[in-house]
Amino acid sequence: MAATVHDVFLLFGDSVTEQSSDAGGLGQLLSAAYTRKVDVLNRGFSGYNTRWAIPILEQLLAKKTEQSHVPGVRLLIIWFGANDATIPANFQHVPLAEFADNLSTLVQLVTDPSSPYHSPQTKIVLITPPPVNTLQWGAYKASQEPPEELERSLDLTKTYAEKVKEVGLKEGVQVLDAWTALWKAAGEVEGNLSRLSHDGLHLNADGYKVVYDELMKIIVDKHPELHYNKLQDVFIGFLDIDPVNYRQGLQKRQA
Predict the structure, then answer these.
(1) Domains and CATH numbers, the chain
(2) Residue 1 binned pLDDT confidence (cut-offs 50, 70, 90)
(3) How far is CA 114 from CA 63, 65, 73, 196, in A?
(4) Angstrom distance (rounded) from CA 135 to CA 133
(5) Is residue 7 within a helix (H) or strand (E), and if so which, with residue range?
(6) What is the 3-state secondary structure (H, E, C) of 86-100?
(7) Hey, how many other C-beta atoms are within 10 angstroms of the C-beta on 219?
(8) Active-site hit among 101, 199, 206, 223
(9) pLDDT of amino acid 253
(10) Catalytic residue status for 153
(11) Is 15 one of the catalytic residues?
């Protein structure tokens, strides 16, 4: 039995995505904006990289049948790179070239007509990894028992963010440059990133609001049909219900 009759915005990524359902997070902000129009599904997986993401997305996407394609996924947001960009000695690290190939594979699962998951109605937005505040994250790692070594760098994460933009251009999908937006919001000072993150790696509500605003700009400019003001409620408002012949009016509509 289907758990939802609404179309879906699917958020797919690592812990930055997983935590975005917290108060003030990207997922929470989207859910509030699209209430009764679209269901926002958070499928964030803490610690995952793009190598491990591919078999997960294959399972999340419904295989097309002779009658239909992937049902209901209107927007797929792919947000990886924070773990891929750890130093090479870290087991989560994925080399830059493979990272790019993996991102392309994730996109092509949906865009390639030969893919069993092909869904031409699904729009895709890639999000770059956010800048890591090594001062804040390093202090967090040092506070662990036993203390842990810093396994990330600001410059390396930026390199992976730039690669996401290259993949987006190659694959013809939109890219939200979270690295640059957050860096500018911090006044381009690493220490100021603490205003946007609760630990130096994961965003707080202020950080997610920066990302949300950038996503809404992309939707307005590139996918206006997906803006919440362009969508109708899937089910009519209660004032429009016919108290006598209510059942006929209470049928699902296309948002």
Answers:
(1) 7-249 (3.40.50.1110)
(2) very low
(3) 12, 13, 18, 41
(4) 5
(5) strand 7-13
(6) CCCCCCCCCCHHHHH
(7) 20
(8) 199
(9) 86
(10) no
(11) yes
